[in-house]
Automatic annotation (TrEMBL):
(R)-pantoate binds at residues 66, 158. It comes from the Bacteria. Coiled coil: none annotated. It is an enzyme of class 6 (ligase). This is Pantothenate synthetase.
């Protein structure tokens, strides 16, 4: 079956009826929420979804609520025709591509609060960002009504916060995390990589090198020290943060912490802001 494109809520209801999703024998549905500009990392999410469910829905929606006033909402890459081809290649059943007017009423008042966790690490640099993320994800969950949803580990704090929301609000959805996909030279795949010039892309490799250097160490001080040494050697990287945090809460770990932690960073290379992380065994 060719991919069904639903451009609004009514189209989504019709698509789910066509697939038989929700009927006793209709099978399970996995949702892969995206903002489009799809790449190999998104393909990996779709493949994991196909392994876990009978049908896969992909949402394509550049969510205005998660962009700050000086961020790149207006220039965020929009490649809808190519995105549809990728979805068809990966066996996606339905693409939900609503407009902002369809997603948000002009007099909307209620939104999701991300709480304290939404104000630390990435949230400290992007106030309100995670409120916008959780609001749109909850709306997508309510509209699509999937059995499960798949998100990338590259956005590790986002993944942790969505899991927290699902637990706190008792949502009947399984949240799956997929490993970060990287280029052969280590650069984490991102829709924003297309902003980088050839030189800036070379400079951006400093980010993954720093994370890999830190991941080879085994105590918090050594992990952070090794990563920071790599970053300090590249003056064209403007670091926002480098932190070692608890995977579930994103609180920074103490020096005596043992077990898994996430080494995460955000930095600007030229005018492009990039994030990345790796899991570290302490």
């Amino acid at each position: 079956m060719d991919v069904i494109v639903a451009g609004d809520r009514a189209g989504l209801v019709k698509a789910k009826r066509t697939l038989g999703v929700g009927a006793p024998s209709g099978g399970t549905l996995a949702l892969v929420p995206t903002m489009g500009a799809l790449h190999e990392g998104h393909r990996s999410l779709m493949r994991l979804a196909r392994e876990q469910a009978d049908h896969v829905a992909v949402s394509i929606f550049v969510n205005p609520l998660q962009f700050g006033p000086n961020e790149d909402f207006s220039r965020y890459p929009r490649t809808f025709d190519t995105d549809l081809e990728i979805c068809a290649d990966e066996g996606v059943s339905v693409v939900f591509a609503p407009s902002a007017e369809d997603m948000y009423a002009p007099d909307r008042q209620v939104a999701v609060s991300s709480g304290r966790m939404g104000t630390i690490v990435e949230g400290a640099f992007r106030p309100g960002h995670f409120d916008g993320v959780l609001t749109v994800v909850l709306k997508l969950f309510n509209l699509v009504q999937p059995d499960m949803a798949v998100f990338g580990q590259k956005d590790a704090q986002q993944l942790a916060m969505i899991r927290r929301m699902v637990a706190d609000l008792d949502l009947p959805i399984s949240v799956l995390g997929a490993p970060t996909m990287r280029e052969a030279d280590g650069l984490a795949l991102s829709s924003r990589n297309r902003y980088l010039s050839s030189h800036e892309r070379h400079v951006a490799l400093t980010l993954s090198r720093a994370l890999f250097a830190g991941a080879e160490r085994r105590t918090p001080g050594e992990v952070l020290g090794a990563a920071r040494a790599v970053l300090d050697a590249e003056p064209e990287v403007a670091l926002d943060y480098l932190v070692l945090v608890n995977p579930a809460t994103f609180a920074e770990v103490e020096e005596d912490h043992e077990g898994e932690a996430i080494l995460a960073l955000a930095a600007k290379v030229g005018t492009t802001r990039l994030i990345d992380n790796v899991t570290v065994a302490l």
